[in-house]
Design brief:
alpha/beta; Dihydrodipicolinate Reductase, domain 2; globular; single chain; Rossmann fold; 334 residues; six-stranded parallel sheet; binds (2R,3S,4s,5R,6S)-2,3,4,5,6-pentahydroxycyclohexanone
């Protein structure tokens, strides 16, 4: 349709191509007009599957193209700073996959630049906020249904990951989700982090601490734990339990579980990957972003949430390196 939001997707690896395809087949009110990737072959292949899209080789040309109203950034993290800033300079909404940038100072500069413009244009791709269970859990806590939240216990397990997932990458790429979840659920900042390295699985490469137990302290005094284990060899398992003064609530027990009774046993299947577990959340995230972007704004986690996540993960990486409890350093919110 002619009044559709015209979207450029930068970076069409696994996540970007999934977003491009969801935008063009399942989201209402959006047309993917431009595809960009550092690999010309990948861009051409993805664009061939998205009717009405064309390939633009230079990401900044894509951001500034006449047929682009908004941008999805799914390029490697090191490219985000310049690409997000270019979107801000053009004054168009952007949905940026994590991380906002790869350093605390650059992330804060983006927060400041957006504040100077006086408009929220940057949304971060923390899709769990759009998952119905996470949203319901947050509402339950906010309505006082559990009393004051005292503790959060998170489990984050992946069946397998590529070899470059070392202990630090596990913090930046995987634990970052629980950083955002804890902030989102408790509506508070994380102030300190400790990482316990225990015994590694025999599937982990030499020197990689998989699994790890991460402990977050928050500004209310509530404590959160996160078991991060990315080579279980089993399935994609993401669970979160919040314990409050008057009760507790647990989510992530595979709501789509098909219960089977075969061979005298009872059981079901687990989701194999994050696309299956969070597919509906990605769809909701994109639909709400498109609706908001058509009005020139965002509807979801913003630049400040991206900055806070970078700051906590930086502290987490230092905690992995030093084995010490590390306090999170954050500048004031502009
Ligand atoms: C990946 O980047 C994701 O976002 C997945 O949700 C997460 O489970 C995985 O550990 C990350 O590497």
């Amino acid at each position: 349709m002619s009044d559709d939001l015209r979207v450029a997707v930068l970076g069409v690896g696994m996540m970007g191509s999934f977003h491009a395809s969801t935008l063009s087949t399942a989201v209402k009110g959006a047309t993917v007009t431009v595809i960009n990737d550092f690999s010309a072959g990948t861009a051409a292949k993805v664009s061939a599957g998205i009717p009405g899209s064309r390939v633009v080789a230079d990401p900044f040309e894509a951001i500034n193209a006449d047929d682009v109203d908004a941008v999805v950034i799914a390029t490697p993290g090191a490219a985000h700073e310049e690409q997000v800033l270019a979107c801000l300079e053009r004054g168009i909404p952007v949905l940026c996959e994590k991380p906002l940038t790869t350093g605390i100072d650059t992330a804060y500069r983006i927060v400041q630049r957006e504040a100077e413009l006086g408009r929220q244009l940057i949304q971060l791709g923390f899709m769990r906020r759009f998952d119905t269970e996470y949203a319901e859990l947050r509402a339950l806590i906010a309505d006082g249904g559990l009393g004051a939240p005292l503790m959060v216990h998170c489990t984050h397990r992946n069946p397998d990951v590529p070899p470059h997932f070392n202990s630090e990458f596990m913090i930046r790429d995987s634990v970052v989700h629980e950083v955002d979840v804890v902030r989102f659920l408790l509506d508070t900042e994380i102030t300190a982090i400790t990482v316990h390295k225990g015994l590694a699985t025999s599937r982990a490469p030499e020197g990689v601490n998989d699994p790890m137990l991460v402990v977050f302290e928050t500004s209310t005094g509530a404590v959160a734990t996160d078991e991060i284990y990315v080579r279980t060899g089993v399935a994609y398992e993401v669970r979160t339990e919040v314990v409050g003064e008057t009760g507790s609530a647990l989510i992530g027990l595979d709501q789509n579980l098909v219960r089977t009774t075969t061979d005298g046993r009872w059981g079901g299947t687990l989701t194999p990957g994050f696309v299956q577990r969070f597919g509906a959340a990605y769809h909701a995230e994109l639909q709400r972003w498109v609706n908001a972007a058509r009005n020139g704004t965002i509807d979801g986690p913003g630049a400040w949430d991206g900055y806070a996540a970078v700051a906590v993960c930086e502290a987490g990486v230092e905690a992995v390196r030093t084995g010490q409890r590390v306090e999170v350093r954050m500048s004031p919110r502009p």
